[in-house]
């Protein structure tokens, strides 16, 4: 069940958790995590409070010198303003005292620390660089998804499908600018490689302006191949249309597959499947949530106990099985997960790098993310590659 405010178990020092996971898979995942914690640590009382405007509430309470003990946030550069203000707790002891540190890959570890100090505990991972496809339709149009070796090759294939067949190559929802930004960052990664991607996100975008513009041009080509109602189509609508067989391909994070599992007659591998987005094989582009703590809490031992459970194999198994995501720990038993998520976990463990998502706040600061979404809104209304490339570069190179 989800709740706006509650306390659970324990008579010792308490922990207040602030979050926005209410209802749906997020609420179920949090409930499973908290149930597991209560079973393992009945002596620690835990109260959780929900707030839809989480970031605003956390900042307000910090300014009032009454921060929550712990809260759920995107890690990476999304946390940089908090780190700059010295309001995040040092959770290095939690990482180093048990088996956590050796069972996380470098990508999640880097997202959790600043200048060598751990400030967060990642709890789940969603992969964003998936290219889903309809099995019967790829056979009908004569394309092998695994043979597409770059985003530009996919654009050329979509053009061919549109010219030579009656099938729709790819749905591309644009009602919300984040889906366009996510497509752009995935194209940038696939077409120009990890070094360029990291260079752009590390505030040297001006040195890579040509790549920024080229990725925008490829996204424009995807837009040309998309249905005419693309500007008014939401992710939910597009995902439902994909399950009804209305397109050959669909790019989205792995959260989209939750709907496929619930769709009648739409079975994994038989009716739908996926490959890494062209050009990104071996890379696991990540969106994730983490738990962070305030620099000053009344019950530091209880907070450390809770963070230790969040980072444990048991806690992450409980949370991710309900969330439809994979655990950032590599030693979690995923036998009870869906076959798709088991495949995602295998790909994660075999990945050579785990770049941090731009769209979901890990690879950019909050102010930069706002500017990037604004740029994408301009892009889908004008399709002016050069002008929007300038906006994107300016957003990345801003020091705010």
UniProtKB/TrEMBL annotation:
UniProt xrefs under InterPro entries: Bact_solute-bd_prot1, SBP
Lipid biosynthesis among keywords: no
Keyword list, A-Z: Transport
UniProt keyword ATP-binding present: no
Source taxon at top rank: Archaea
Matching Pfam families: SBP_bac_8 (PF13416)
Family of the protein in this entry: Belongs to the bacterial solute-binding protein 1 family.
Name this polypeptide is given: ABC transporter substrate-binding protein
Organism: Haloarcula nitratireducens
